[in-house]
Amino acid sequence: MEHIGEWMLGYLRKHVDDLMRLSFEVKDRAASLELREMADECRIMVSLADINELAAGIKQQTFAIGDKDRLSNMNFEAKPLR
Predict the structure, then answer these.
(1) Half-sphere exposure (CA, 13 Å, Cβ side) for 65?
(2) pLDDT band, residue 72 (cuts 50/70/90)
(3) Are residues 51 and 64 in contact, defined by beta-carbon separation less than 8 angstroms?
């Protein structure tokens, strides 16, 4: 499944580049603005997918709060303020 996700992100990134290229080539200003807006929407989708992937990676690396061995080795002693 991850392989398909990477393929889709690459596909969207290519479309962003193509839409931007077309927006510069087209002579109609309204069409150019529409193409740039479409490119921006694709960029947002790619960014959200990248953030989601990053968050999933971070979540896998964190340890569970209920891990008794790790919690028992931590020092929770209150220290006086000066």
Answers:
(1) 0
(2) low
(3) no
Alpha-carbon distance 14 to 16, whole Å? Answer: 5
| CA-CA-CA-CA torsion sign (27, 28, 31, 32) | positive
Q: Are 9 and 50 in contact (CB under 8 A)?
A: yes
- Residue matched to tokens 């979540």: 59
Four-residue CA torsion sign, 26, 28, 34, 40: positive
The pLDDT of residue 1 is: 44
Q: ∠ CA(47), CA(59), CA(46), 5° rounding?
A: 10
**What predicted TM-score, i.e. pTM, was given to this entire model?**
0.60
